[in-house]
Amino acid sequence: METLFAVLIGLLVAAGVFLLLSRTIIRVVLGLAFIAYGVNLAILTVSGLRQESPPLLTLEGPYVDPLPQALVLTAIVIGFGTTALLLTVALRAYQVAGHDDVAAFGDNLARNPDAPDGQHADPEHLSPDLPEADHTDEINAQRAELERLRRIMR
User: How does DSSP assign 68-114, residue by residue?
Assistant: First the structure.
């Protein structure tokens, strides 16, 4: 039984690493989830997989420590919340950048929109996500309109 679980753990971690090395943001999130599932299964496997020793104190026989099962249950809940948060951040990054390529995410995700000159987090390495030069007039007009609206709101 332990051999089967060891192979399953290896497959989950291998699939997770493969997805984690991808350039698509959703695959990266799924890769992290697969690795977490593999680690949870490893914790359960190490704690023991004997059917004759249940974690119930009302039954006779040798007992299994219930702590690994409680840890895995907690890890599942935390992993679900983390995955939901990462998917939300991935969706917002896709909306801002317009693509889901992790390697091409650039400085515009860290740009300060309130800065007067469009200040970048790293001015030496500008983003590949920056708009083309022929759209600068439209962007400047949008920024001027936004600034006008901000003044009206104050």
Answer: HHHHHHHHHHHHHHHHHHHHHHHHHHHHHHSS-BGGG--GGGS--TT
How many structural domains does the chain have?
1
Asked whether residue 37 is assigned to any structural domain, the reply reads yes
Burial class of 25 by CB neighbour count within 10 A (0 to 12, 13 to 18, 19+): buried
Would you say residue 93 lies in a domain?
A: yes
According to DSSP, the residues that pair with 24 across neighbouring strands are: 101
Write down the pTM of the prediction: 0.64
Q: Give the other-Cβ count within 10 Å of 77's Cβ.
A: 10
Report the alpha-carbon distance of residue 23 to residue 99 in Å, rounded.
11
User: What's the alpha-carbon Rg for the chain, to the nearest Å?
Assistant: 25
54-80 pLDDT, tens per residue?
A: 666 676 767 677 788 899 999 999 999
Query: Percentage of the chain with pLDDT > 70?
Result: 72
Q: Which two tokens stand for residue 109?
A: 């995700």
